[in-house]
From TrEMBL:
<feature type="active site" description="Proton donor">
    <location>
        <position position="150"/>
    </location>
</feature>
<dbReference type="GO" id="GO:0009264">
    <property type="term" value="P:deoxyribonucleotide catabolic process"/>
</dbReference>
<dbReference type="InterPro" id="IPR036412">
    <property type="entry name" value="HAD-like_sf"/>
</dbReference>
<dbReference type="InterPro" id="IPR023214">
    <property type="entry name" value="HAD_sf"/>
</dbReference>
<feature type="active site" description="Nucleophile">
    <location>
        <position position="148"/>
    </location>
</feature>
<protein>
    <recommendedName>
        <fullName>Tac7077</fullName>
    </recommendedName>
</protein>
<dbReference type="Pfam" id="PF06941">
    <property type="entry name" value="NT5C"/>
</dbReference>
<dbReference type="GO" id="GO:0008253">
    <property type="term" value="F:5'-nucleotidase activity"/>
</dbReference>
<dbReference type="InterPro" id="IPR010708">
    <property type="entry name" value="5'(3')-deoxyribonucleotidase"/>
</dbReference>
<dbReference type="InterPro" id="IPR052419">
    <property type="entry name" value="5_3-deoxyribonucleotidase-like"/>
</dbReference>
Length: 345
C-alpha cells in the first residue's frame, strides 16, 4: 500500500496534470491512444515539512500495465539500478516520481502533449523532466532548427489563390506553381505581382484564411524536447505583427525567436535566410523553397526540403534536390524522424 507521503505525491501529480488547459470537457471526451508514460523527478513534502524524492509511475491509455481499460494509473515504487535499491543519505529507501513524458507511441491517434500540455512542476515551480521515452536524454546537445512559415507551417498559397481568383478572375491551383515566383505563374510583371500580394495582406483571405499544415503542431511539440526551434521566414516586415499573432495562435510557445527576411517587400532592406540561420547557429533549416535550401546548404547548414504530400511542384526543381546537405521530406512525421535520427547519431 502507498504510504501517506506517496499518496500526497500522487495527489500533487494529479493536480499538475489537470492544471494546464485541461477542462472537464477534455476529460469526458473519448480519447484513443496506445500508451502514454514516462519518468520525471519531483520532490514531495512529508508531514514533518521536509522534502523527499518520490517515484510514481503514470500510465494513460488502452492496455497500460496490462489493464485493458482506458484511464490514468499511478504506482509508487522504489528506484532500482542494476537490481540494487538506491538509498538516501540517511540510508532510508529513496523514492522518486514517474511523470508523463511528451512522447506518444507512433500510431497514437491523439497527441496528449498538445491537447493537454502535460507538465510536472516541482515545489520550486520549475519543470524537472527525466529522460523522455524514445527521445535523447537531457544531456544530449539540442539541435538548433530554423523553420519556414509559408507552405511549411501554413498553407499560404491556397489562400492566395482564392484571393487572386476572386479579385482578378484568374484561377490557379497549387499544382501549377512549378516555381515559387508568382509573376511567372500569373503572367504579369514582378512589380505587379508584388502589388497583388500586398493587396492580399489587407484582406480576410490572408488574415483568417491561412490554415496550419497538418501534423505540424503535434510534431513540433515533440521536437521541442530535443530541438531549439526558431522561425526564419522570408515574409515582409509589413506583415510582421499579424504573422506573430498567427504563430502564437497556432503554435503557442514553441519558438524561441522569429526572424523576417523582408523579401519581395515594397520597401525596406531584405536579409538572406542563410545569414539569419548562421546568426542563430542553426544546424538545420526546414523550408519548401529549393532556392533557400541551396543557399543554406552551401554554407554548411543541413536542410529538410519540405514537399507536403509530394504536392509542391516548385520543391522538385533545381540542383538543391541533389545536394548532399539537403534531404527531402513529405510530411511532419518524416521531419520528426529525420531530426531524431540526427540528434541520436
Amino acid at each position: 500500500m502507498l504510504k501517506r507521503e506517496s499518496l500526497r505525491s500522487c495527489s500533487f501529480l494529479l493536480r499538475c496534470l489537470w492544471s494546464d488547459r485541461l477542462s472537464l470537457m477534455a476529460l469526458n471526451k473519448p480519447l484513443q491512444w496506445t500508451r502514454f508514460s514516462g519518468i520525471s523527478q519531483m520532490s514531495a513534502g512529508s508531514e514533518h515539512g521536509s522534502f523527499r524524492d518520490r517515484k510514481i509511475f503514470v500510465c494513460l491509455g488502452n492496455g497500460c500495465g496490462g489493464d485493458s481499460s482506458s484511464g490514468l494509473s499511478l504506482r509508487s515504487c522504489s528506484d532500482y539500478h542494476d537490481g540494487v535499491s538506491r538509498r538516501g543519505v540517511d540510508d532510508t529507501e529513496k523514492r522518486h516520481v514517474f511523470a508523463p513524458s511528451r512522447y506518444v507511441d507512433h500510431g497514437s491517434e491523439i497527441n496528449l502533449s498538445e491537447d493537454m500540455r502535460l507538465k510536472l512542476v516541482n515545489g520550486g515551480g520549475s519543470c524537472n523532466h527525466g529522460k523522455h521515452v524514445g527521445f535523447p536524454g537531457p544531456n544530449a546537445q539540442k539541435l538548433v532548427v530554423a523553420v519556414d512559415v509559408d507552405e511549411v507551417l501554413g498553407s499560404f498559397l491556397s489562400a492566395l489563390n482564392k484571393f487572386i481568383a476572386d479579385r482578378y478572375s484568374s484561377n490557379h491551383s497549387v499544382s501549377e506553381y512549378y516555381v515559387y515566383e508568382f509573376f511567372k505563374i500569373w503572367k504579369c510583371s514582378r512589380a505587379e505581382a508584388d502589388v497583388r500580394v500586398h493587396e492580399f495582406f489587407k484582406t480576410s483571405y490572408f488574415k483568417t484564411g491561412i490554415h496550419p499544415i497538418p501534423g505540424a503542431r503535434h510534431a513540433l511539440h515533440r521536437l521541442a524536447n530535443f530541438c531549439n526551434l526558431s522561425v526564419v521566414t522570408s515574409r515582409q516586415n509589413a506583415i510582421k505583427d499579424h504573422t506573430l499573432e498567427w504563430i502564437e495562435q497556432h503554435y503557442p510557445g514553441l519558438f524561441q525567436e522569429i526572424h523576417f527576411g523582408n523579401h519581395f517587400a515594397l520597401d525596406g532592406v531584405s536579409k538572406p535566410k542563410s545569414e539569419i540561420c548562421r546568426s542563430l547557429g542553426a544546424h538545420v533549416l526546414i523550408d519548401d523553397n529549393p532556392k533557400y535550401a541551396l543557399e543554406c546548404a552551401d554554407v554548411g547548414i543541413r536542410v529538410l526540403l519540405f514537399d507536403y504530400d509530394n504536392s509542391y511542384p516548385w520543391s522538385k526543381t533545381g540542383s538543391a534536390t541533389s545536394h548532399p546537405m539537403v534531404t527531402k521530406v513529405h510530411n511532419w512525421q518524416e521531419v520528426e524522424q529525420q531530426l531524431l535520427s540526427w540528434v541520436s547519431a
